[in-house]
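Take our chain:
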Amino acid sequence: MSERLQRIQTLLEDKKGEDIEIFDLSGKDYIVDKVVIVSAMIGRHSFALLDYLKTELKPQGEIFYATEEESEDWLIADLGDIMIHIFTPNHRKKFNLEEFLKSKATNSL
């Protein structure tokens, strides 16, 4: 798992993803074990980050079970036990998912 997360983080950094945060929700009452949040510079950059992840990770056996790509301001990739959220900066501030995930990570079942 840690190697997969490191690979994801490195790929996002390679394409100028910013403010990457990883949340460990293993053993918590949440739909996945790990959540990755990254900021894209603008909407087009969001799509470029997601496309790069797909291009690089699928050949390595990573399965994208679902992606939410309706809004360039918030893209989601579901890898089963890892969820990746790609936000534009304004949407990241607006939804403040980090606060929710931090509280989830510290609370036990």
Notes: Strands lie at 18-24, 34-39, 66-71, 74-78, 82-87. The CA atoms of residues 50 and 57 lie 10 Å apart.
